[in-house]
Every structure is written in C-alpha cells, then in structure tokens.
Write a structure and sequence with these properties.
CATH architecture of the largest domain: Up-down Bundle
Strand content: under 5%
Oligomer: single chain
Number of strands: 3
Structural class: mainly alpha
Transmembrane segments: 18-39, 51-77, 97-124, 136-157, 196-220, 246-266, 278-300
Strand order of the largest sheet: 1-2-3
Pfam families: 7TM_GPCR_Srh
Keywords: Membrane, Transmembrane, Transmembrane helix
Radius of gyration: 25 Å
C-alpha cells in the first residue's frame, strides 16, 4: 500500500488564504450593492419579504467570510484530515471553528425558509390548509433552526480528537508523517465510527433541508394554481416568476457550496500520488465565494434591479464620453476641464431627476 501523499509535500499554501481573503473582499462589494438594490428597487414587495431577503444576504456573507477568513479549512484527502489556514487557527481548535461556521450557516438556512413562508403568506387562500398563522410560521422556522444547530454541533463534536489520539493513528498507519500533528490547525479524523456518524449527520441535514423546502415550494405553486380564476394573469405570472427566481438563486448558491464537498469525496478515492492541489484550491475558492453567484443572479434576473444597473452603467458611459469629448477641445487644462464638466453633468442629472 502506498502511504506517500503528494498533497502533504507542502502545507504552507499561503495562496489559499490569500485567495479566500480576496474573494471575501469582492463579495462584500457585490452583496452590499445587492442589498442596496433590494431596498431601493423592490418597492412593490412587502417590507417583511425585503427584510428577510436582506437578512439572508447578510447571513450568507457573514457565514462565508468567517469560513474564508477565520476558518479557511482545506481538505487533505485522501489523507484523513483537514488543515485550517484561517486567522484563528492558533486560537481555536479546528473542530470548534467548524462548529461555529455550521451554526452561522443555520441562520442563512433559516432565512431562506422564512422567505419561502413569506411568499406563501402572500399567495395563500384564507380557507387553505396552508394558511398558517404567523406565530405558527415563527415556531416552525425557529424549530427548524434549532434542529439544524443541534446536528451542526453534533458533527463538530464528533471531530474532537485529542493530540494523542491523532498521533496514535499517524504512528499506526502513516509513521513518516508524525510531524503533521505538530502543525497548528491540523485535524486528523481518527476513528471510522466518527466518520460514519459525521457523514450520517450530513445526510440527515440534507434530507431536512430538501424535504422542508420542497414542501413549502409545493404549497406556493399549489396555491397559485388554485387561484387561476381569482388572480389576474399578470399577477399570477409575477408570483410564479418570483418563486422560480428564488429557487434558482438558492440553486446557484447550493451548487457553489456543494462543489467543494463533492470534490473532497472524489479525492478520497484517488491514488495517494495524485496531486489534487490545484483543483482543491479552485473549488475551495468557489466555496468561499458562494454568496456571489446567488446575489448576481438576483440582480440580473430581477427586472427592476437589472434596469437600475443598466441605468447606472448607461449614465456613467454617457458622462465619460462627454467628458472626454469636451476635455479634448480644451487640452491646455485637462484636469480643470474634467472637474468642470463633472459638476455640470451632476447638475444635469439632478435636473432630470426633478
């Protein structure tokens, strides 16, 4: 059996942390702009829906920023372990940071479910079986989050191994890598039973997520279908589009999140001498920036928000062309010309707004 792991040849990988920091920095601007568009370009939506949407964007960004900056866990498979490159690697055990990240993720999952229930409240009939009281919905959403928090903490605790336990595993199976346990942030999964319980908890969480979201989505589409004669065609198409758009937005986020775990499963079956560093780093960066595709999809696929983006780009393009043209006619004072034209353009925009 080949007990030489190419992926363990170099564990410095500062570029992994740098890529995660840059991704979080870019994500901050994109998500901030997305929140701005939600608050300014969703005037026909009820305030509760907008607040839930804003909370979901913030919750996912905080979750991914904590992962990318503080945790930054990197899979060492097919070697049975992970290593943290986050800024808290010398402060908190890896399994604790994993548990904190899991709890933070439940807030996004809670907000996503809350958004679906709000859309259900908008379209549900009073006599319908799906017409829940707001207090009932609050109870369901928070119970849902508590269950998820329990399983997240359970999974984290199952990865709590002492240094002696990790050293015993390395000494028995991979004696040439005994130095690995001295590196800060390294977590070795020592027992097969713990791996089974961990994977089993992942399956349970996935089943809870899929079943709950599928039920509420079915209720939304069912209620819209039952109101064909009561709801105008325009309104019905609008509600169907909003439900479909949010489903696709969640799908974009879920795909970005799932790529990295799926790749780690694949690497577990690869030969030890295969260097998976490049692809692991790519999927890890996508995982950290999972909020970006969801927010971009929301901004592009929402008619009013995309219209605002086009207006901003068109105005800026027109201003730049006018400034260049006028400055070319006054080449002796290019900087003064730019400032003067910029002020005139601003005044022109204010007049148009009025």
């Amino acid at each position: 059996m080949n007990n030489t792991f190419v992926i363990l040849d170099d564990l410095s990988r500062n570029y992994t942390a740098i890529a995660a920091y840059i991704t979080c920095f870019i994500s901050a601007f994109i998500n901030a702009f997305g929140i701005y568009l939600v608050l300014t370009e969703s005037k026909q939506e009820m305030p509760l829906y907008k607040n839930c949407l804003v909370f979901s964007i913030i919750a996912l960004y905080i979750t991914k920023t904590f992962y990318g900056v503080c945790f930054c866990a990197y899979s060492l498979l097919p070697f049975p372990g992970i290593i943290s490159y986050g800024i808290l690697r010398n402060v908190l055990p890896t399994w604790v940071m994993g548990g904190i990240w899991g709890v933070l993720l439940t807030f996004y999952l809670q907000s996503a479910l809350a958004i679906l229930f709000v859309r259900l409240l908008i379209v549900v009939r009073h006599e319908s079986w799906f017409h829940f009281k707001k207090s009932t919905i609050v109870f369901i959403v928070f119970t849902y989050q508590i269950i998820l928090i329990y399983f997240m903490c359970f999974m984290a605790v199952k990865l709590d191994f002492t240094k002696e336990e990790m050293q015993n595993l390395i000494a028995a199976k991979y004696p040439k890598y005994m130095h690995i346990t001295e590196i800060y942030g390294v977590l070795i999964v020592s027992y097969t039973s713990s791996q089974v319980l961990f994977l089993g908890s992942v399956v349970v969480v996935a089943v809870i997520l899929i079943s709950t979201h599928s039920f509420v989505r079915y209720a939304i589409y069912y209620e819209i279908k039952m109101q064909v004669n009561k709801m105008s065609n325009t309104k019905r198409k609008y509600h169907l589009k909003m439900a479909k758009d949010f489903a696709l937005q969640v799908l974009c986020i879920a795909t970005a999140i799932a790529l990295y775990p799926m790749w780690t499963i694949v690497t577990n079956f690869l030969p030890n001498d295969v260097d998976t560093t490049v692809f692991t780093s790519i999927f890890h960066t996508i995982f950290v920036g999972a909020s970006i595709p969801g927010t971009l999809f929301m901004m592009i696929n929402n008619t009013s928000q995309y219209g605002r983006i086009k207006r901003i780009l068109r105005i800026q393009k027109t201003m730049d062309l006018n400034v260049r043209e006028r400055c070319n006619n006054n080449q002796g004072f290019p900087q003064r010309c730019w400032n003067a034209v910029g002020e005139k353009e601003d005044l022109k925009m204010e007049d148009n707004a009025k």
